[in-house]
Amino acid sequence: MVVRAGLVVLGVLVIAFGAWVLVTSVRPVQIRGLVVWLAAAVILHDAVLSPFVVAVGLLLRRAGRSLRAWVLVVVQAVVVLGTVLALVVLPEIAAKHHGAKNTTVLPFDYTTRLLLVEGVLAVVVVVVLVVGWRTARRRP
Questions:
Q1: Which of helix, strand or coil describes residue 64?
Q2: Residue 121 class from Cβ within 10 Å (0-12 exposed, 13-18 middle, 19+ buried)?
Q3: Res 68 pLDDT > 70
Q4: How far is it, in rounded angstroms, from Cα 66 to Cα 58?
Q5: How far apart are CA 128 and CA 107, in angstroms?
Q6: What SS3 state is found at 108?
Q7: Under a CB-based contact definition with an 8 Å cutoff, are residues 79 and 53 in contact?
Q8: What percent of the chain has pLDDT over 70?
Q9: Which residues are within 8 A (CB) of 89 and not within 5 positions of it... i.e. 6 or more apart?
Q10: How many CB atoms lie within 10 A of CB 14?
């Protein structure tokens, strides 16, 4: 009970420190943009990422009766990795599209790189599913 109370107090102190740093180091105009960005991140997570991962998990559970556990783990890990990667890179793509004052801040073609990595992840999923399906057919 004492440890739990101490962790709660520590958490409140860390939040208070973060709020103090935010208020003292960020201009009010930027705080509005930060609030919009945080709200968009929560909405994107709750409306897109979470339902997608749940739907894939449900499909994998149905297929899990005929596939081995390692196949399901790899596919779930790739789905989570791909969605988190997209969530991290999409702001860079948007910033590159809007243009930056300093061209060295966003020097790469993030859209092409994201599509390439997502394509590699899709190939990994297909290979794992094919190997898992073939080995599942052979077991008694």
A1: coil
A2: middle
A3: yes
A4: 14
A5: 34
A6: coil
A7: yes
A8: 96
A9: 110, 113, 114
A10: 10
